[in-house]
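Query structure, 480 tokens:
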């Protein structure tokens, strides 16, 4: 009997020793901050905002200076149901101060954006607009900024003048003492150890050890969301409507922000990465009727049906041209007289009269400088008309100079070149020129591809005449 009892006590002792080795309460289980932050990111990707807040709170308890954790938790506070804009604003303002201390321009812009969104949710529209102004200076290409600016301007326009909602009561850098962040994080999380360790508790009445429950698994999303770089859109039209399809899977219905105006369309929704995707068309090709236009979010796409303000109008594209761009591209009705640069180039100011038109200057190899060929052609045409009139009214013994002009012009026929006096003038020069001049004219014209015409064989004969297009133009080979 004693032998049996001794054996039982030995087995019991071995069992207790085994338990003390396997489940030593002085050796807690380690949970890293990286795991908590990763779980928080996964919760945001699946729109599980309460779980995201829980995980990022654990991550902040160990790393209270991490700017991104405050930004992500502020996002979760804003998008949760019900939302908590007050806590979201506290996290956003803390993130602004921490980002300024680090000097990270991108983080400052993200924190100020979350701050402005939180202020908008609190109906502090004047402060929200000020935050969006700071964001625009730091990140002018932020896609969601345009939508939030439009929303806050609409609220300010609808608010009464002098209302407290329109006042600006904030500064760019909030007055927050961040030196206490680490202490507050530790005292606010009693269940979390100094090193984020969760100790095992052992019951005093029994030798069994209580093992903590595994964290609840993150719920899987209903469908896989399309990455931002693979989202596409398509459109078609009928006589009275335009249908736009955004090919994006898994767009969250409760978080998507859609804005349809008379001349614009925009949609913003969160991505699995925590960022926002923005699709906007402003201005549209033509005006639409926002009240009669509809949209529908489906599992594989988002569809917009825009009612045309003018039925039967054919849209050439989805987007039109803004009024400022149209003013820049619209041709001037007075030949460019309103443009000071064009006016300085194309006209010369006559001190005693109206501006005098100047002819364009063509490339030339003449040592005396460029010639105004249009003026020469006009003078030649006028001279022919004058000679014809004199020949009908004057006697045979009229001035010998007029006879010489008539002889010089006897071979000139403007109709030979379709009424172009310049071509007729060049033909006349070529016909009466000596062989060297003709060779110079032919060689320079052919080798320069019609951009130069020279009568100086001594210069042209030295080598190839290069193409010299007019100012503002580029010479290209055929087919380029």
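Result returned for the query:
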């Amino acid at each position: 009997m004693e032998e049996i009892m001794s054996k039982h006590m030995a087995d019991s002792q071995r069992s207790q020793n085994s338990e003390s080795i396997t489940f030593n309460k002085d050796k807690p289980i380690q949970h890293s901050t990286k795991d908590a932050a990763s779980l928080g990111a996964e919760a945001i990707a699946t729109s599980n905002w309460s779980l995201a807040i829980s995980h990022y709170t654990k991550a902040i308890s160990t790393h209270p200076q991490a700017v991104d954790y405050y930004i992500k938790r502020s996002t979760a506070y804003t998008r949760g149901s019900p939302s908590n804009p007050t806590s979201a604003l506290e996290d956003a303002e803390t993130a602004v101060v921490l980002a300024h201390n680090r000097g990270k321009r991108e983080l400052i812009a993200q924190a100020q954006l979350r701050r402005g969104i939180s202020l908008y949710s609190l109906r502090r529209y004047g402060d929200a607009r000020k935050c969006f102004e700071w964001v625009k200076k730091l990140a002018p290409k932020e896609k969601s900024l345009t939508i939030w600016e439009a929303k806050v301007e609409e609220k300010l326009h609808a608010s009464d003048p002098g209302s407290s909602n329109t006042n600006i009561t904030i500064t760019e850098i909030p007055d927050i003492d961040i030196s206490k962040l680490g202490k507050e994080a530790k005292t606010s999380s009693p269940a979390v150890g100094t090193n984020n360790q969760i100790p095992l508790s052992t019951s005093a009445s029994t030798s069994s050890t209580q093992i903590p429950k595994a964290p609840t698994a993150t719920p899987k999303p209903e469908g896989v969301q399309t990455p931002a770089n693979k989202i596409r859109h398509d459109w078609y039209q009928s006589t009275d409507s335009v249908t736009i399809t955004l090919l994006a899977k898994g767009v969250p219905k409760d978080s998507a922000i859609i804005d349809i105006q008379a001349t614009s369309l925009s949609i913003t929704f969160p991505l699995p990465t925590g960022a926002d995707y923005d699709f906007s068309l402003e201005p549209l090709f033509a005006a639409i009727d926002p009240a009669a236009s509809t949209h529908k979010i489906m599992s594989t796409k988002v569809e917009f049906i825009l009612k045309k303000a003018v039925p039967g109008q054919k849209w050439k594209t989805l987007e039109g041209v803004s009024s400022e761009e149209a003013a820049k591209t619209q041709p001037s009705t007075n030949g460019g007289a309103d443009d000071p640069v064009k006016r300085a180039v194309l006209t010369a100011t006559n001190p005693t009269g109206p501006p005098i038109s100047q002819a364009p200057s063509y490339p030339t190899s003449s040592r005396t400088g460029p010639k105004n060929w249009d003026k020469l052609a006009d003078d030649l045409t006028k001279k022919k008309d004058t000679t014809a009139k004199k020949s009908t009214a004057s006697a045979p013994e009229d001035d010998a100079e007029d006879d010489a002009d008539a002889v010089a012009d006897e071979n000139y026929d403007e109709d030979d070149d379709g009424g172009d006096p310049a071509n007729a003038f060049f033909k006349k020069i070529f016909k009466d020129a000596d062989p060297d001049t003709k060779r110079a004219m032919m060689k320079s014209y052919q080798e320069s591809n019609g951009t130069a015409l020279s009568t100086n064989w001594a210069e042209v004969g030295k080598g190839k005449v290069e193409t010299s297009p007019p100012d503002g133009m580029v010479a290209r080979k055929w087919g380029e």
